[in-house]
């Protein structure tokens, strides 16, 4: 009996079915620096251009802000009171808080004329029985006329009524109470209500991240519809390997792409540093340029807050887990013009794979300057050191999902070598976000970031089991990487009307640059006895080749969100230019370039009762390196998606329900040339169709719920390697999840919180569909207690226990290639304490 062998290593590539692409070549060193500096200079020039205006507004803040006594001309159409107040607050650049039940069913006569801000609010609520008052902090509160605002729980129900928070300050990174977010920036790069977004988007809030104790990006999105988390199980913790709607997705940080070099330099951020995570599903090149077909996961930092807050925590768990965290934020002056935040953690633990460890130190400082209500500049930085990371290996199908006469392999099986294995990564970054409102309708923004990765990696990996069912053939790999990236995004946003049509127009220019060098080598390694492994065998360091890669992307885009009554029509287009230069040691440079136009259109209708049906079309592209048999450079991969759905946001309580149907197709995929198998052609195609249902609800202040269901039909529809008509490996047809979290607010158990969840993953297929992997159901749970309920001296302190895969289910997460499978995470139990003040 003969087994298949492979020398291909499971690199962090865009598509697991493709072999590694030929190394890319790099520009001469002077050119990328000049391009990066020129583009950075352009962004700084834009900031400098608006700075005099910003300073003028700052100097004049006492005499002519929107909130002062000066009258301005406003236009707010008559309609539901909540919509009218929100519209006016947005125009005036102020914050407003209102109880949804207090304004339910009330209508406003609208506004058309010259008023101060306070006069405008008074005119909008005339005859409604409510009033708007300005608090000492500058927030406008909606309350029953002559009544004090309700701050305590209702004495009869013991529950605080839900409050709708509307903020006109353009800060998408503000706190969100509970699990329900009502707006986001990932889908439109503007503060757009999720219900008006004609594409499926999910938001994981800070409360959900904390209560589920998410320690990886995979864990953070486990309960999100359309996402197949941990597609390589519990071994690949050093990379965020997951899929959206069956395809790879891109990760972003604060709206800018986390750029990788296509090999092993791939950024990874710790979820503790994040305020929330937005998951946008499907192609999105119209706003972001080259992008994977699955979508975008935007991780949004914990940034400075005007209210002082401090937190420290410690945590312990199985696998020798130890962790300490801290998060400090607040104003530096009495007027809150200068804000700071400092967030960090240190973690050490054994990996699930035998003999491996995880270690991490991360710190993220940030500073915000707000000279007035219209101007904000935030500077942020990151230093993250990962001295060790668990194995990036695999397990063979034999002894895991296929029969092996010697029995089953243990869930902590290790295919490497302790003396040879190493992984050390250092990440450092600095970035900025600048925003200035020129007036109540026009805003300019510029965002930028520099990111560095230095990495040393060596591993031994399995490549197939011999006919004796116990000898695992192995190879070695070693790579030393250095990568620097620059990402810039400059935007102008304007709000205006053309007759009855209201517009939110966004225009922008962005730039991405990557310069990477890596010494990579593959070598041989002695075989391993699966059932009597020797993890300390002599292995020579493989010979390495230096590869230098430089790439640039320029893009210009425009988007118009048009509103006519209850209709919202979104239209966008973008043009991109990309270029890559690759230099392999001992050979000359190879240049490749591409150009692409992408577009998007969507239509939403928002009913008064909170139901919003929508339909959309969107596209993406992704450059590909290499040439076909005739020497013609490969065109970019293209993807397009049709989506229809309905969203529902109840008016009486905080919740958002989404139902979406989509048809997503990828074209120009690389596959062996049918006439010349030594080369590749790009006639491959893959398809994903499905239905997603998701619910996020803060039923009361005591109950939070997250639920989802996903049906996926993902197949290769054109392929020359034998995959045509087969399902994509590791992608289940059915997924479902439910998580609920309850806090007892009254009685002897007041302060006790507990949560529980279940995650179901249906059957998946092996790489070539020759066998199926069993479905599995995982259970999570948590228990937390507020010690401040015991004694006022302990106010701000809590204790908690969190368990993931509580029943310790043994399962294989996927078999993503012919000879490679991955066990899923076993039971993880964490116990910790926090103190906040």
TrEMBL record:
Cellular localization per UniProt: Cell outer membrane
GO terms for cellular component: cell outer membrane
Keyword Lipid biosynthesis attributed: no
Residue spans of biased composition, Basic residues class: 1-11, 23-32
Chain intervals for the UniProt region annotation (Disordered): 1-32
Xref: InterPro entries: Beta-barrel_TonB, Beta-barrel_TonB_sf, Plug_dom, Plug_dom_sf, Secretin/TonB_short_N, TonB-dep_rcpt-like, TonB_sidphr_rcpt
Membrane topology, from the record: Multi-pass membrane protein
Domain called Secretin/TonB short N-terminal: residue spans: 94-144
Main location: membrane
An example Gene Ontology molecular-function term: siderophore uptake transmembrane transporter activity
Record GO biological process: siderophore transport
Alphabetically ordered keywords of this record: Cell outer membrane, Ion transport, Iron, Iron transport, Membrane, Receptor, Signal, TonB box, Transmembrane, Transmembrane beta strand, Transport
Family statement: Belongs to the TonB-dependent receptor family.
Protein name listed in UniProt: Iron complex outermembrane recepter protein
Organism, scientific name: Paraburkholderia caballeronis
């Amino acid at each position: 009996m003969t087994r298949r062998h492979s020398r291909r290593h499971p690199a962090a590539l865009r598509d697991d079915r493709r072999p590694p692409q030929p190394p890319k070549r790099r520009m001469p060193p002077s050119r990328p620096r000049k391009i990066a500096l020129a583009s950075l200079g352009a962004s700084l020039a834009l900031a400098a251009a608006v700075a005099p205006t910003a300073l003028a507004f700052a100097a004049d803040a006492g005499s002519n802000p929107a909130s002062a006594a000066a009258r301005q001309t406003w236009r707010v159409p008559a309609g539901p009171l909540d919509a009218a107040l929100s519209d006016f607050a947005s125009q005036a650049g102020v914050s407003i808080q209102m109880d949804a039940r207090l304004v339910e069913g009330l209508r406003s006569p609208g506004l058309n004329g010259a008023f101060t801000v306070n006069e405008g609010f008074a005119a909008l609520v005339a005859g409604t029985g409510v009033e708007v008052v300005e608090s000492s902090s500058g927030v406008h509160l909606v309350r029953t006329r002559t009544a004090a605002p309700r701050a305590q729980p209702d004495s009869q129900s013991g529950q605080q009524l839900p409050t709708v928070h509307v903020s006109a300050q353009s800060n998408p990174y503000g706190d969100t109470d509970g699990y329900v977010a009502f707006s986001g920036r990932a889908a439109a790069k503007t503060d757009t209500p999720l219900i008006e977004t004609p594409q499926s988007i999910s938001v994981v809030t800070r409360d959900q991240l904390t209560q589920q104790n998410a320690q990886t990006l995979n864990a953070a999105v486990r309960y999100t519809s359309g996402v197949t988390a941990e597609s390589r199980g519990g071994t690949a913790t050093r990379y965020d390997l997951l899929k959206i709607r069956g395809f790879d997705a891109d990760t972003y940080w604060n709206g800018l792409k986390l750029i990788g070099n296509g090999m092993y330099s791939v950024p990874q951020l710790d979820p503790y540093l994040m305020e929330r995570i937005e998951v946008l599903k499907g192609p999105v090149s119209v706003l972001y340029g080259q992008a994977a077909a699955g979508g975008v996961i935007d991780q949004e930092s914990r940034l400075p807050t005007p209210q002082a807050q401090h937190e420290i925590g410690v945590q312990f768990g199985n696998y020798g887990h130890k962790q300490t965290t801290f998060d400090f934020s607040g104003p530096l002056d009495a007027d809150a013009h200068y804000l700071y935040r400092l967030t960090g953690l240190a973690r050490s633990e054994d990996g699930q794979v035998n003999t491996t460890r995880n270690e991490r130190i991360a710190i993220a400082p940030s500073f915000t300057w707000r000279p007035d209500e219209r101007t904000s500049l935030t500077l942020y930085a990151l230093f993250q050191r990962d001295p060790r990371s668990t194995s990036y290996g695999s397990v063979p199908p034999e002894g895991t999902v296929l029969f092996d006469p010697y029995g089953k392999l243990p869930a902590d099986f290790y295919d490497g070598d302790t003396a040879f294995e190493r992984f050390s990564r250092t990440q450092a970054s600095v970035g900025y976000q600048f925003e200035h409102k020129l007036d109540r309708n026009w805003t300019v923004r510029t965002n930028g970031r520099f990111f560095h990765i230095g990495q040393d990696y060596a591993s031994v990996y399995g490549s197939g089991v011999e006919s004796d069912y116990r000898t695992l053939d192995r190879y070695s790999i070693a790579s030393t990487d250095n990568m620097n990236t620059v990402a810039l995004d400059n935007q102008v946003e304007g709000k205006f009307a053309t007759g009855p049509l209201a517009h939110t127009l966004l225009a922008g220019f962005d730039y991405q640059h990557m310069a990477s060098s890596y010494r990579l080598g593959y070598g041989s390694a002695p075989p391993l006895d699966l059932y009597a492994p020797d993890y300390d065998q002599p292995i020579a360091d493989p010979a390495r080749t230096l590869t230098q890669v430089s790439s640039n992307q320029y893009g210009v885009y425009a988007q118009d969100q048009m509103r006519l009554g209850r209709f919202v029509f979104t239209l966008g287009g973008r043009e991109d230019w990309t270029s890559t230069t690759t230099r392999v040691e001992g050979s000359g440079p190879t240049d490749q370039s591409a150009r692409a136009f992408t577009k998007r259109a969507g239509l939403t209708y928002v009913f008064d009762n909170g139901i919003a049906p929508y339909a959309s079309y969107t596209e993406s592209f992704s450059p590909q390196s290499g040439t076909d048999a005739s020497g013609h450079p490969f065109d970019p991969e293209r993807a397009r998606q049709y989506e229809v759905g309905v969203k529902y946001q109840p008016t009486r309580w905080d919740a958002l329900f989404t139902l979406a149907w989509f048809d997503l197709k990828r074209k120009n995929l690389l596959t062996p040339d049918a006439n010349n198998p030594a080369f590749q052609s790009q006639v491959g195609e893959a398809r994903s169709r499905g239905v997603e249902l998701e619910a996020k609800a803060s039923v009361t202040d005591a109950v939070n719920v997250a639920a989802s269901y996903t049906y996926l039909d993902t197949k290769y529809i054109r392929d020359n390697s034998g995959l045509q008509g087969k399902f994509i490996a590791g992608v289940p047809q059915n997924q479902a999840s439910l998580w609920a979290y309850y806090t007892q607010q009254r009685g002897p158990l007041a302060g006790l919180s507990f949560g529980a969840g279940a995650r179901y993953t249906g059957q998946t297929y092996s790489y070539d569909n020759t066998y199926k992997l069993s479905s599995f159901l995982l259970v999570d749970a948590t228990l937390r207690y507020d010690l401040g309920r015991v004694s006022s001296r302990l106010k701000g302190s809590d204790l908690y226990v969190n368990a993931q895969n509580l029943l310790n289910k043994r399962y294989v997460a996927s078999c993503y290639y012919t000879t490679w499978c991955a066990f899923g995470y076993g039971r993880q139990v964490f116990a910790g304490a926090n103190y906040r003040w």
